[in-house]
Amino acid sequence: MIGAAFTFLIIGLIAALLGFTSIAGASFAIAKFIFVIALVIFVVLLVLGLKAGKAVADKL
């Protein structure tokens, strides 16, 4: 997922350098959206993993 965000960021940078402002803006928006979604998923899975680890450690 981060790879896709990085790809759209590169596309946006190249489009901005070539003067395609609408494509660059759209690519940057897509990259930001994908990055935020990936960050939210990471935090949710991190919290769930910590809770599961604590539950396993309490049973030992």
Automatic annotation (TrEMBL):
Give the record's membrane topology.
Single-pass membrane protein
Name recorded for this polypeptide: UPF0391 membrane protein PBT88_02945
Q: Where in the cell is it found?
A: Cell membrane
Keyword NADP included in the entry's annotation: no
Could you list this entry's UniProt keywords, alphabetically sorted.
Cell membrane, Membrane, Transmembrane, Transmembrane helix
Q: Does the keyword Cell membrane apply?
A: yes
Q: Pfam families, from UniProt? A: DUF1328 (PF07043)
